[in-house]
Amino acid sequence: MSEKVLKENKMGVLPMNRLLLGMALPMVASMLVQALYNVVDSIFVAMLGQNELNAVSLAFPIQNIIIAIASGLGVGVNALISRSLGEGKREQANRYAAIGVFLSACSYILMLLVGFFGVEAFFRSQTEVEAIITEGTKYLRICCIFSFGAFGQVIYEKLMQSTGKTSLSMYTQGVGALLNIILDPIFIFVFDMGVAGAAVATVIGQIGGMVLGIILNHYKNREITVSFRGFRPEWEKIKRILVIGFPAVIMMAIGSVMTYSMNLLLNALEKTGVATAVFGVYFKLQSFVILPVVGMTHGMMPIVSYNLGAEKKSRMLSAYRYTLFYSFGYLCLCSVLMLVLPELLIGFFSPTKAMLDLGVPALRIIAVGYIFTAYSLVNSSFFQAMGRSVLSMVMSIARQLGFLVPLAILFGFAIGLHAVWWAIPIAEFLVMIVAFFGRIRIQKKVLDPMSNA
Predict the structure, then answer these.
(1) pTM above 0.85?
(2) Residues 273, 281: Cα–Cα separation, whole Å
């Protein structure tokens, strides 16, 4: 047996179902903890009032951009490290790791400037309610100025995921989320900081996750080493990271454009803020639906990237099929729960009667679309893992800007507010069609020419 086989990473040799579940389930668990944090955070804020809930909801686009940039860079670094290890190029993997941390630090500087100079203007562009502007500005300014924790936590998680150590990344996410959940009521109610207290709890959780990520990478992630001794930016490697990661940034950042556009539309159709509050509640609940599937696909991505580098087509396809099977089953379950128990789900957010009247039918309509979502999400991550991130970007643009926003505007002004929600499941169906044709293209252009080693 050759030295390469003896030393081969588990992603090239373990039985696929066992490998995928071993890598994905810790990430799914950490995503569920993250989803719980998202929901609990809003539950506490909702106790303060509808304006405070709206302030946090309207802050989402900027917060999402922070995560989009951090995660997009992480996707590029993750894929290139996994591929380098699959090719047996450890030193190259180490250089990609250092560059990933460097790019994350540069990205933080951008969000620091937004925190100091752009937050209040962002809120004034969405609402004229001074209470929402005041509370939202306090909340988002803290999140931006201290966002180095978010950038650091994400990049060090991606470094662990790239070598298959997803259980370690689960600890960083779990610790960050649990810190936030514990500190939320203390800062919001005990210290009487209100919405600003929720922001302080958020950034402390992120910084805690970052510190743990640095420690675990140093002591437990021995396949790569992050070192800045003699470091210099290697523009060719930065370009490769951005080629893979930038479409992922765009895909997630488009969610911010979509949310911002939907908030403007809903405020135009309904002036009291009830519709935007319902939309914010839907986004928080959706984290329970989408984030575990994201965890499953993130478990798949390094497997696919590694076996792409090792030219093992059958293992790539096996990882893809198992991920699609588990994701579809989970989303069908979520769809049923949302159809049957919408009153219970909205009830966690201290709703007014107006929120219930609008939100219950809205959640039932939205739930229909989840049966189409699994195929789109799994294929999007599959395309990214194979270095074809442009296809993923096309899918995301189509879903949120090409389909969802135009349909919502059309339905809202032509039919009425209640029709806006139908744009969400229709957009999911249409993007599934786009994913289907993208999958055919990948099969013909990339998979069919490969040997089935």
Answers:
(1) no
(2) 12
